[in-house]
Amino acid sequence: MEGDIAEMGKFIGAGLATIGLGGAGIGVGHIAGNFLSGALRNPSAAPGQMANLFVGIAFAEALGIFSFLIALLLMFAV
Amino acid sequence: MTTEGESSGFAIHPMDQFVIKPLFGGTEIYWYTVTNVTLWMAIAVLCIAGLLVLGTRRRAIIPSRTQSVAEMIYGFIYNMVEEVTGHDGVKYFPYVMTLFLFILFANLLGLVPTSFTTTSHVAVTVTLALMVFLGVTILGFIRNGIGFLSMFWVSSAPLAVRPILAVIEVISYFVRPVSHSIRLAGNLMAGHAVIKVIAGFASLAVVSPVVVGAVTAIYGLELLVAVVQAYVFTILTCVYLRDAVGGAHH
Hints:
The complex is a heterodimer of chains A (78) and B (250).
Chain A: H1 4-17, H2 20-41, H3 50-77
Chain B: H1 36-55, H2 65-85, H3 93-110, H4 122-144, H5 162-200, H6 208-245
């Protein structure tokens, strides 16, 4: 693709792709908040679940990363 | 990005810090060219070797500070591998430990002012993630034979849903190295770019005291991110390894 319109479309598309970050934010906040509320009820069980917490956050974050990937592809690859 | 650099209005362009430069002159970069990436990776490896060699040199009963740091990292990663992958996975502990130390030191050295963050480049992290992906796949087939493929056939689901789940499982399996690598590179790159963007505001004299405070705060946050991302990369490696190692038991 060439021309100013296509160039503009790239930037708009890359900007729109950042909306995906909001979803990742909701997901990560949900996991961390639920972990905290569970940990406050049963603090003795909390340290054993730290690994699960981070794995859950990593998986939730992965979907936000794909929107970042799309932004990168639009900016540099299309 | 290079063309709009002059007109973007930043005193410091936030992406300038990620430019790969050959160390000994010239502009062409071949696979054997010594660049700043090579330099900072070598420094990371030297730091790790230094920490572990110096830390375990005396092997005192009452550990010195260096020795306790080395022992703490070792114990932390050992427990993690044993907890996540199970007893059979402990065999692969050296590889996981190497990954963790390399990523941790590359991340932390990237925070030294005017240094270069090697892990902010997708090329570096994709190499690490692909090694894990290929390693886990090959290991899974060696340990479980063709039965490794039963991982994609979710036997606990109703029969009608299983083909659809199998497709989703296969896709999510092949997407693993993508998210695994881009997470690390993206977090590091975004964090460092944020520091530079905010530092760029310091050219306005009115807000510069605020900027110094803000950069300090974000620097602290980046320290946390550097450690957490190294931890996340390693623990995901352990989770993927569990599929290959413990595939028969689940």
